[in-house]
Amino acid sequence: MSYSVTLTGPGPWGFRLQGGKDFNMPLTISRITPGSKAAQSQLSQGDLVVAIDGVNTDTMTHLEAQNKIKSASYNLSLTLQKSKRPIPISTTAPPVQSPLPVIPHQKVSLTPPYM
Fold first, then answer.
1. What CATH number should be reported for the domain holding residue 17?
2. How much is the pTM?
3. What distance in Å separates the CA atoms of residue 106 and residue 115, rounded to the nearest whole number?
4. Which of 47, 63, 68, 99 is most buried (most C-beta within 10 Å)?
């Protein structure tokens, strides 16, 4: 079941997106800034973005969606669908500790260098 939200601008709107055709994931609301225009509306973390200003998002890349949102000067109309899976929000999650910093393009050796 989809629903529509119109945020009155100008931006910033107060939410972040994740996904897009280039990520093979639906566009999804990943974060809502407390006290923002998005927080004062019906937007919920995890909701799927079906359309932006009446334009279907099925074939939009992440960048195309961002540009469409940024181009909304006064009103931003979103058509959304409630997520089937709620995203858990944890404020007490411990930080992840890594013994070594890992940079994807570098090789990490766990043995000490020999001199």
1. 2.30.42.10
2. 0.69
3. 21
4. 47
